[in-house]
What we know:
Layout: E1 4-12, H1 15-31, E2 35-39, E3 53-59, H2 62-70, H3 72-81, E4 85-93
Helix pairs in contact: 1-3
Amino acid sequence: MPKAYWIAHVTVTDPDPYQLYATGASEAFKKFNARVLARGGPAEQLEGEGRPRNVVIEFDSMEQALACYRSEDYQRAKAHRKEAGIAEIVIVEGA
């Protein structure tokens, strides 16, 4: 079964509630055995519109990644992010 990757591009507009999101989301990721491969750090936008924060999280499968996103824990955390930033999130199945 191929792994899946949760890829997020984020602009944080209000750091305090965003921190609540990050804490809650991290707890959800742990429950689904996710592995953070990249979080923040230097990035160079080569094409298209970029965001200052980029995150890549590995899951054992597409089903696990989607279950995490749809989980009550993640949705509760996401509520803090709604007013604290702009996010583009995609989950892609690995080759």
